User: Fold this.
Amino acid sequence: MACGQGDRRETGKVAAIHGRHDNVFCGELACGAEIIGEKGRFGMNMRFAEQVRVEVERKGNAACVGIDPALERMAGVLLASCKSDGGGQPDAEELLTRFGRLIVDAVADLVPVVKPQSAYFERFGPAGMRALETVMRYAKKKGLLVVLDVKRGDIGETSSAYAEAYLGNGPWAEMVDCLTLAPYMGPDSLEPFARVAMRTGKGLFVCVRTSNPGAAYLQNLIAEGKPVYAHVAEMVAGLAERQGVAGYSDMGAVVGATLASEAREIRAMLPKSLFLVPGLGAQGGSLAVVRDCFDADGGGAIVSSSRGVNYPVGEFTSLDQLGEAVRQAARSFVQDVQSCRTAVV
Amino acid sequence: MACGQGDRRETGKVAAIHGRHDNVFCGELACGAEIIGEKGRFGMNMRFAEQVRVEVERKGNAACVGIDPALERMAGVLLASCKSDGGGQPDAEELLTRFGRLIVDAVADLVPVVKPQSAYFERFGPAGMRALETVMRYAKKKGLLVVLDVKRGDIGETSSAYAEAYLGNGPWAEMVDCLTLAPYMGPDSLEPFARVAMRTGKGLFVCVRTSNPGAAYLQNLIAEGKPVYAHVAEMVAGLAERQGVAGYSDMGAVVGATLASEAREIRAMLPKSLFLVPGLGAQGGSLAVVRDCFDADGGGAIVSSSRGVNYPVGEFTSLDQLGEAVRQAARSFVQDVQSCRTAVV
Assistant:
């Protein structure tokens, strides 16, 4: 094995990173081929894209449920269930953990993937980070794939630090199957992530065309005859190509469900990339666009909803009742996603 | 006071955010005018840009020292100074804290600003976040301005969550004076940060033109007759304009020290923005470019170096010796920065 010691993954310990600094910058995507064997020792022989395929098949749908603990939206019964922080407010770590576990319990047998949004946890500093860790561990234990939504992206060694932390030999890697990335800083901002993902079999979703109202401002500018998002897609395609893996590569793409023509264009440019498709709920995306993100055989995409599932409408007098409402919202979302997928197949 | 309760800032407590959810989405930049008064109660009447001006004047230079604890580069004497984590490696929280405090002690009376890079702390999960908190508190205590380099950017409520966490009423806000942002998702990804900064007097640096080798891939594409980075600059200018503050606005820009013509072009587009100029050391930026980032009166920019100051060359047998070498490296960097600034004035 070229890039040793991959089984030392103690949370918060220097050992996990410093002990193998010889390969943190091992430099070559090519070394990945040997390292895939390393993963076998963790009982996960499959790369992320393959795991997604299997789990979508097993659960019968390609839905991904976000975990976005926005306190402003939380049900009173959940807030009241937590011990106080001493100042008359619920303890942040307990609240975020309870919220995350409630969502996981409600959807674990329904959907293949969950997507915690890091911002809502980071917001509470170390207490939030501990909650994020607990929730992701719990999701893994329940058999879910975990996409951590962090939209990171930086240069050189900083990207390497993020990549190792979340996908490599850092404290988060055993709970995270896949990460979201921001592309503005160019190929060298993504390459360290691609290199580590190649080694460990983890997945990446690069923001290519997002679903927010202001996305078009930069992403749809026409440069050299095509939109900026198409340049980003090319960058992703180039990295995917270099990986040379069979089937889907580790280089996935975030493609908002906003315009069918864009989805088709990006799908054609990224035949080897899994799509993460947000925007179907609160952001007003359309089912028709989601259809165009799937392959001809109904694979190749997972469709994400956060708010619509996390915050069902109604008054709840018990956590069981709230959990049941989340489960019903997830069922309804799954049906929407399935109607797109079966329309393709 | 329109957006009350700003003085409850207990780390990791829900109270700090949930107790004032009525104004997390208060919506209007305009409310900032009233809220500036709120800051007075913390003994910080000045906005970030004004604080920079005063501190640059007081310290006699516009240098910013990064705090990038990359374990692979750390001096043996520092590693050896930490207690063991039980597995024969130094304890991560202690190591990161010691490193950060050593840098702060070495440069506190020399430079006005430090810039911790979040990635190197996040890498260690909650232990790293605790270290980041300690280091930033220490820097504040020593009278330094703190720019937290996180390059965040997301949509709608998620950006609001980040903004409140780091600049508003979240657990990080009392240690952070300014944040770096990524622009790919468009104006609505930056606006929540602008809104919170306006309210609290904090600063922002949006990545306009970065200094990494691959930056040009997207940033220099020509769209509608100008490079993509100029479109980003326009977006920043638009937000700065809306703020309507006197002097420099809260909307600063990251402008790499790579090409003088670009620096001049961006300076002309962003007359109200402070520049954060990286790239002078390891990334090969030039002093001539740095000159073009300053105003005619030698204000308007801070120049950043991380690796060159953090990791002085040599063998060190004591922490004092290491600290002295960091101090010498900082002195040398300060001289370089000053030579640019005085050439302007």
